[in-house]
């Protein structure tokens, strides 16, 4: 079948009928079809509002409410995997038997997979769990007993947690009962589970059981042992480190083969040779905001296709603005221009002649380093995905604009690519409108959900607990969404790369992460290339490194951020409540991001470190190091841009915590040296390796950073209005109306105002109204977390 | 406060110096179709092969084990990618900033003749800066011992051994490369003068020029009067190597045989035959094409 026919068939079959017109609507549509809310309040080079409005499934009318069940409800097999007819077999068979638009319904109970298996969600169906995710979940116990082989914990409540349910048991004394376990006996208000402590014991602690009736787990997967590199096995203490080459539990992709993806017949980046010679070259430079590009050939491109566009940074060695090593970095020629305009791929790679400076190593390694991690073809970190609207004579028009310039001139060599398998040049359409809903996923050592070559896909109302390698990884994924979910507690929180709760990777474009609880991770999130992703109205808090990780819970890593590789740009962070609003520079620069109407608190909410039982409190500097000794917490900051993170915009945010981030408590308004500060609203230009060395481009009044209308709790005022910009801030940079989770009245009668952050109002952080409502702030996700009902709005 | 400051810096280093978390497919089973050709594909003569270069495409594409590394008190097995390179991203992820000690190089030909050392205290360290072009290798320094094959070899001449190694500049004591420790004489070694390779001929060590601090592709066919010494693609014939230095149930050793070795090892192979000059050249071409 020709690619054009395939593309047309894809459109006819995979999209709901009303979506067709929307798919080809004029650029700049979506949630903000008729206006640009950033005019007058944001520099034009930061403006990707036409793309932000299309984030998630907005273009196709939101997540579809599907009701057509395909086949019988898939029930847990009860078999120990792997074997024929086990749960992976049954679920994959059910998906195979269905067609796009169907629902594959999983019954209540525990679905067990072996770590050699995974679910292949390769059709536009909804994989949905049964019932409502309103189970007891997190339970503070009142005490109990143990006899050496089992322990019993009692809790308030009448719920019966089924035998076989995986649970996490933490903060227990004696500590021998801590860890992940399986319920062996249960009655209303109590559970018994196997443990490793001998002798008669009195125990007390906390149980984390699934919130959803449908549970998917790796039967021999990750355990809550807090061992370095993670321990796997059927039950604690496990059989040793988990495999470093495992699978995510669910793969959402058009191909069941995890690795059979490529571009224009080339292997994916990171796989030798790391370059692609069969891309199609642009014949003229394209600027930010353009929707039509000129190309050398339109062969293999057709309306309805998702394509990759990228360009080389075209780096040269320049003096590193961070001068402690007196060395150089590889960067675009305009990477340190004092003007943010025009928006283009002006990135900085961390490669340095000073090998201790961020690991880039010898300049001779530059070529291989820039593609080594597999997020982009060599040096081609500026990359986006776009949907073809029409094809002309030597031109291709997308359905929304480029967020950044893509240039054929000089050696930028901009190209576009069509999706294929890795070993052929046959067109491989993106998977579209596949969804995952309403279930608990746990004990995943190599990521829980991976989207790759996915568009308009979603994860909604999913309870993640006990992961390594992240909860959701979006790879070459566009306009997909993670929403209403609970991204809870990684069980291998060390500096290994497995500790990031969620990642936008490989040109991920216009995806949406909203209304989630994102808590107890090493980094709240990372953005490794890609553009115009929107992170909104999430509660992101309490990131830490576990005891024994070589670090300790004292170290506060990034909370809300779009960084950790070179190339991410034009992300929007809106309405989140986070311990900090950062971008790190560990693996290069990420630019043009916008932080709007967030509450960047500057401290983590006090919590119990589950790896040690330590009561962490940043406000009183009560943390511990890797050895378990008390240690100061830090670095404390509300907005923490590290070196090279240029042309970011902070508008209308609230920075700090009332009564805490004050001069009297030793805080500064602005600092750059993380090792000697005891807290700063703004920690700017700081450097990972040499604390005293900072990026002078990000200190003081600087053209490299746009700040406007941010209220801070150091001055108890807005002190950063920028001349020439309006004080009239819009409600949103991507929405034209209140999102549904704000307009909903909760079970406790709470009514959540929107926007909930208003830096120009008093107070700047709004509270909900309604009699019987005890939520402290008007962020729905935070209220759900505080109430202990992460899936039920109080 | 000073103590705290230093500690913070150290901890941050721990979080940042490790290589970036690689994309999933780089840490997983290798995809097929990469077009990789290994040195033992270029000439199918290898009886055993070890090191940081995949000997064959099939071994690479099947994700065969490259080496075992010990870091932070834990041992990890690192496999090859289809590119022919070990999965350094996984290694980096496993080790973080802990020193990666190379415990074992796996035999890639399938004869299960791994070479290993006795522990981290004597192990070479994985380095990404061997030679003048910055290649990966196992780096020997003070106190590091030889690696010994797990199986013994019984092989009369002719036989062939080869290594890709360098010697650190300004270290001009005798430096063993590969051979048979049981007979006390390495076949290939760095001589006691700078920029010199020596091959044991049973009585003496005829010398060949090879600059220190550069990785060299050294192949020796031990076959009496028909021996060949191949140094970086130059096949030296007319040499007569020891006609009694057979293996008689002996292990094979790499590095530190009869003398401390300072330098890098990247790849080695053993052939139970006399490799032809054409095949020596083919293997050289393959390895040099990979940057050695």
In short:
The complex is a heterodimer of chains A (794) and B (292). Chain A is mostly beta strands and 794 residues long.
Task: Report on this structure.
With 794 residues, chain A is mainly beta. Among the domains of chain A are: 3-56, no CATH class; 138-209, Beta Barrel (Elongation Factor Tu (Ef-tu), domain 3), CATH 2.40.30.20; 262-420, no CATH class. In chain A, the strands form ten sheets. Chain A has a 21-stranded mixed β-sheet that branches. In chain A, strands 3, 15, 28, 30, 32, 35 and 38 form a seven-stranded parallel β-sheet that branches. The longest helix of chain A has 12 residues, at 3-14. The model of chain A is unreliable at 1-29 and 353-364 (pLDDT under 50). Helices cover 15% and strands 36% of the residues of chain B. Chain B has helices spanning 2-16, 39-42, 57-61, 88-95, 277-289; strands spanning 48-51, 65-71, 74-79, 101-105, 115-116, 124-130, 135-140, 147-149, 153-155, 159-167, 175-180, 185-190, 196-199, 207-209, 216-222, 227-231, 234-239, 247-250, 253-254, 263-271. Chain B has an 18-stranded antiparallel β-sheet that branches. Chain B has a two-stranded antiparallel sheet with strand order 9-18. Chain B has a single domain, classed as Jelly Rolls. Mean pLDDT of chain B is 77; it is low at 1-18 and 28-34. In chain B, strand 15 (216-222) and strand 16 form a beta hairpin. At the A-B interface, loops of A face helix 1, strand 3 and helix 4 of B.
